[in-house]
Prior knowledge:
By secondary structure, the protein is α/β, with parallel strands linked by helices. It folds into two domains: 27-376, Alkaline Phosphatase, subunit A (3-Layer(aba) Sandwich); 377-481, Arylsulfatase, C-terminal domain. Helices cover 25% and strands 18% of the residues. The protein contains twelve helices and 20 strands. It has helices at 2-18, 54-61, 76-85, 113-117, 172-175, 195-198, 201-215, 247-269, 309-312, 339-346, 362-365, 447-464; strands at 29-35, 64-66, 69-70, 104-105, 123-129, 147-151, 180-184, 187-192, 221-226, 276-282, 316-319, 328-330, 334-335, 376-381, 385-391, 394-397, 400-402, 423-425, 428-431, 480-481. A ten-stranded mixed β-sheet has the order 8-7-6-5-9-1-10-11-2-12. Strands 14-15-16-19 form a four-stranded antiparallel β-sheet, with helices on one face. β7 and β8 (187-192) form a beta hairpin. α7 runs parallel beside α8 (247-269). The model is unreliable at 1-23 (pLDDT under 50).
Amino acid sequence: MKKLLILRPLSIIAVLMAFLPKNKENPPNIILIFMDDLGYGDLSSYGALDYRTPNIDRMATEGVRFTNFLSAQAVCSASRASLLTGCYANRVGITGALFPAAKVGLNPDETTIPELLKQKNYATAIFGKWHLGDNKKFLPLQQGFDEYFGIPYSNDMWPVWYDGKPATPDQVRKYQFPPLPLIEGNEKVGEVKTLEDQGLLTKRFTERSVNFIKKNKNKPFFLYLAHPMPHVPIYASPAFKGKSKQGLFGDMMMEVDWSIGEILKTLKDNGLDKNTLLVFTSDNGPWLNFGNQAGSSGGLREGKGTAFEGGQRVPCIMRWKGTVPEGLVCNQLTSTIDILPTLAAVCLLDLPQKPIDGINMLPILRGDMDFQPRKYFYYYYRKNDLQAVRRDNWKLVLPHKGRSYLGNLPGDEGIPGPSPEDFSHKQGLYDLRRDPAEAYDVQEKYPDIVAELLKVAEQAREDLGDDLTQREGKNRRPVGRID
């Protein structure tokens, strides 16, 4: 009896310890790779054809591949604000895609992932696309990063037409953009002037990432590698042009995979393989009206700029050798907003003082595929339109006007086709377990589910507001503004 009385509490402690991070005195390095407009079907481990992504696929075989992972919103700036703060973007005041010389940006009062990691003295860097305000007040060095080299917004915000030629006065929107700057720290150090310059970005940001890893191999570090592609305009360096069977898009994706391979090789060569958590995902789905220079939604409905699954369900792979069991597939509902609290749990950090929306996924990284981090999800778009809500695998699309690619012939060779922004989407209920393409509206068959999800929508409106129903929301925080 005495042995039983002693063993029971010890066994309980052992179970609890299994779900706590290891290496308390040696917290893991974190590498977060964030693609731009990478669709659910754009990796060979997710079904891509006519090119292969073996290095990214190896990450999946050596870690966990998520199949039900959502970007917090289907557009650039909003999704990045959500990633770095663990909040729905409209909670922190960021909407849409910020343009050059924007008067707003991510509020420095919000706590970002790199600021959180400073509790453990992490070295922090971002190489690539920022897109959370190009005023110095909002740039990465004022948001918790020690180093920054990259572009301040999307790579198509430049005075160059889709064919690579300088924009003309009649091409008003492009013509009025300033040259696309390259920024080091807080200062402009160069410009991206041609498609050939665009083709060197993947290589340049990879090289900077490799050097950062080597420089900080003896201390914990956080690397945020935010590749500007496959957001158009796409291009590839000479080493990869013409290498795939899928034209320029395939070439560019092969170079992205090379980039990930360089990161993996650097970790192994420097003895960091088993103490580094890698996260690979995308800001939103593909920009489908660009045709053969756009990615694939993998059969999901619609793409970037929509609240349908093709706009927000994206690839996600997490690898942490020796901690994350190999070859796992997670089908649970998860999101980019869950990354911040997960990293906080991994590194034993205090969460931000202000409320966040993300949920800790650490049990999944420990191999518990039955763990359900979240039950509900809100699909917002535009300034603050609540366009859909979800409970588990039930999704209610709410009536709204928005983008649609369906029935419109896509463009070709970098020239966009039409994608009407004022298409009237009707209310519909979809069972994503059976119908991930959102093709069959079953609301007449399940009125009780509709009623429940309408209550969920009302909770979202009370919390975060909804322009479609003229609701302000009680818990939105102010965007950062230039004084």
